[in-house]
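Sample A.
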Amino acid sequence: MKKHQKLISVVLSALMLTSAFTVVPTFAAELQAEQCVGGDLPASGSTANCRWTFNETTGLLTITGSGEMDLDKYFVNGNTKVKEIIIGNGITSISPYTFYGAYGLKKVTIPYSVEKIGNYAFEFCKDLETVVTDQTGMSKLKTIGGGAFYGCESLKSFNMNQGLTSISYSAFVNTGITTFVIPESVKTLGEHCIGFNYENSEYTKVEETVIYGVRDTAAETYANNHEFTFYGTTWEFNTITGVLNIYGKGEMELPQYWMDFLYENAKDVTRIIIDDRITTVSAYAFYYGTAVDTVFLPENLTKIETYAFEFCKKLKNLTLPQSTKSIGNGAFYGCTSLNKVTINEGLKSIARAAFVNTALTSVKIPKSVTYIGDYALGYTYQNKTYTKVDGFTIYGDRGTEAERYAKANGFNFVAQEYIQNVNVSFAEPAADETVSFAVYKDNYDCGFITSLFVQNGTGLEFNYKKNGSSTYMKPGDVFQAGTAYTATVWLSTSKENTFFDDELEVYFNGKKANVQKITSGIVCATLEYTAQEKYIPGDVNENGYVDIGDATMIQYHLADLLDAPLTENQRKAADFDDDGEITIGDATMIQYYLADLFYG
């Protein structure tokens, strides 16, 4: 005890000398080490907010309740019989020093309701190996207090959730953790909070410390200030759903064989979602993700690097974003279930063996691809020998790299046809007319788009919807004058290997429609019309037939002698020669028509 008192005197003297200049954390490690006497813990008990039960045989301590934990300081101080602690959902904080000195503690489960881990909460739990935090993406943890896990020398990892905002001073000093994944949400990293040991009143840096974080955040600043190795990518893995979220900006920064190292051959990761801000998938990043069946690539992806998804054996379907420019060597090597790849216009290169040992039997390669490496497509590899996939087919454009590669390797090549212009003729909406879907073939560049389908089907589909409503009009509905109707045509290719070109234009009765590309073989074209009152050409006085009075009425209109201006339908009827204006020629043509002298 005298030795301990002497140590206290030294520390207090040091504090008095330095207190005027800086704040030095006071560790229970130095001041109270001999208070850990291993007292017995009652089998059960309660406080205002908490209840606990302790099974001395199994070593399990269960704490339930609601609100802030209000257990005494040093609640399990020095107790070597507590092997596992489970904190129930509803507890919102873990109070300071509560589990200090639980020397026999090996595992702690912290629920998603906990928002704060107090100062020195688990200090000197030297046998603590596992801290289970919520991994469903619902964790509310915001703050890890100063020295919270100080001296947990057996602790090798700690999952930090998205939403965590601060890690206080010396939180993970003297632990076994050398790899830290710091979420972008963390704004404050206290002095020496990670990557340091503390002994003889001095901090020493753990040189092998690696920090993963998003660029331009507190994590990068901390790493740079202390010269730790830094990777600009973080992740969050949901053990229940199997979803692995990858976060970052710019190039993905993950070391080779990262998946293998982190997740024991990634046996539990089934779905990967990559942050849209990421522009590259790094080499070997998801190597040997044997359970991965779905990958969501980022919208801004430009490059997939060497062997990025090698041996992701359950991956079946892949769509490359339009921003993708290159696929690296062996990027999808050994993805034995991969049977469909959608390559959008914009890709420029596919490197050597990129799709070897997959389930692909055909692929469509856009004309933007200017380089395809050796054995990139259509091959298997076994016993140091490349073998062609029987019947492998490449669809592409004449005179492109796709055709060159197909012919050079003896694969089937099917040249694609494109449609660039479609003209649709139909009766525009007129008041009191019933809806019909008569669409007439008119100057199609490709004659295989000829048929009409009111419901879904291959070919040409045509519909109206009224005033932008989501419900389409049905045959037999009546058009109403002055009402806006949106005409919609879906065009889909019914001939194999035929696609709509990016420059496709659709015309409704000569009027250019708005075209939306749905897929490479389906487009949707729309144009808005307003239903007009019906009129009879030449019947200006609207008596139901053309007579001399109509010619006279045109003359009165031109002389400005009418009692009221012509209505819109009367103006249309008066333009008998259909030249877009009303002239004396229209009155003359009506007279010719009545005299049976009109041959137009």
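Sample B.
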Amino acid sequence: MTKIISIIVSIIMLVMTSIFPGFVWPGTETVETGAFLEQVDEAFGYLPGLTVDDILGVEPNNEYYLAVSAAANNDVLVDYETIDVTASVTPEFVATVLVNAAGVPVGEVNTVIENATSIKNVAKVSAAVENGIITLDANNKLGLGAMSADEVTAAIEKAVSLRGTFTEEAEDLVLVDGVKTVSDYTVDGDSIVVPASTDIAAGDVYVVEQSDEIMTGAAYKAESVEVVGDTKVVTNSEVAIEDVIEKIDYEGTSDVDFATAMITDGNGEVLSDGYLDTNAISKDDIMKTLKKLANVSFSVKGFKIKAKITDTGLNFSVSKSVCDGVTLSKAYELTNLTVDAKADMNVAKLNFNEVYLKFNYDLKDTTTISGSYAKTFGEEVTTVGEKLSGDSFWAKAVNKYALSKLDSTSIKLFTFTLPLGSTPLSITFDVLLNIDVNGRMEIVVVSEEMHGVEIINNKVSTINESTVVDRQTSIYGQFELRLGLDVALGLYGYALVDVGVEGGVGAYVEAHAKYVDANGNPVVQSTLTIPVDYLKEFAAGANTEGEIDISGHADIYGILNVSVGNHSAIGKVGLKKTWTIYDRSNGVFASIDF
């Protein structure tokens, strides 16, 4: 009997879905459109944009506003002018959003959809069906009603698995009229040498294509041309980007292979020449490169740098004696770096239709400051040699502390340059270390990072996600150490769009000193940001008439600053901006009393 009932129910459901493609069996769990966008944001790591206006008809006070903001900020709602976040999500909406999120190519409609006339975004629905994100029913019809919660979950999981698996589209690159292209050339100092038959004359603007000599390609204005035998030696000057490139339209995803990139250290010395044609690299070539980069060491501004570069990432450490008794070291493991880029722009008019640059990576960050600032002052700390009141003790402590302060330092550690797929575009990736130290501390932070910038119709917003996997903390001082990553999407040596991320950890330490006279009366109670170990040493050696009690409190906080347009074309149209995502005001993750 149970089997017969099941067959009857199946027949009824088949009939109902055939007659009504949007039919959902009573009791089926569905998902509100706003809740679906929350799931998409979480799955793809999307964050809200910097706006307080209504978005697609959704007001800021709506419970789903942040979900809509994040989805819109990441360009997955471009097919809609308004949405109803409380309505049950439909297969068409799911298909359209997830095709956008996963970067699924959308071309001609090859899928037979019997009720296509009832669908607005047929091409994207077809792409979603072809790639297994959603399915049609037995009659090749798309459900027009609510989608079940289980189907929504499965669709999101499938879309996430597809993200980054598509090869980049062929770029559409148009040079300004009159700009010439040269592929056969060599480099001789500051000059370009070409065959004598090459159509290059003084005053011409031209580009040289990517080669092993100029990995990014380059653009020049020929100032003079001298015929030497069967060659022309061209002396060049710089030329503005808008005088070279008319427009560029590119979209794609690439893994950053450190073993094939051109790598220079902070002194400009080339550590690896890199490979232009990665398809032609043999296993022996890769092994030779990795062996060469297994033990790299150099010095920049007194900092000792040691690095090991592998095909999956970059491990490096930085160390320096900042003063007598205090040593600073910083270690990073940077792996799994991928770059998503889109550049749809009219460069000649400096009009940016749609541009984004996103880079994802895993980062383990270990900071150690060892030793004691008290040692910096040597014998003076323990041989004050005079009677001190509470006021004079504190004044001497502050004066001597001021001598130990380390000025802020910024150093470039590495520059990586590599072509973006098989296109003339390239990625430049600078690794910086920014330091401001007072004290002693060890902090280990393991995180997964995604940062980027998106521009639509000349409006700029940032894309940021930082997921902390693990933290270990041991503190006794005050400092800020920040890893800087500057990534630029370039063409012929020009930076089209750039993102700078400065992130790290800091600590704000307060030392509390209470001076009690011989009669037990509190005379002075003061608070200052000061290395507590130094203050304790100083108090122990002070010849005072009363007692000095030293204690301290520290806030440990994350630091993340994001900047765009500092050294690229987008800065020319006023899109140069810097955001402080978090600092001590909103990024404290541990407080310690000692």
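B remarks: The chain has ten helices and 25 strands. The mean pLDDT is 74.
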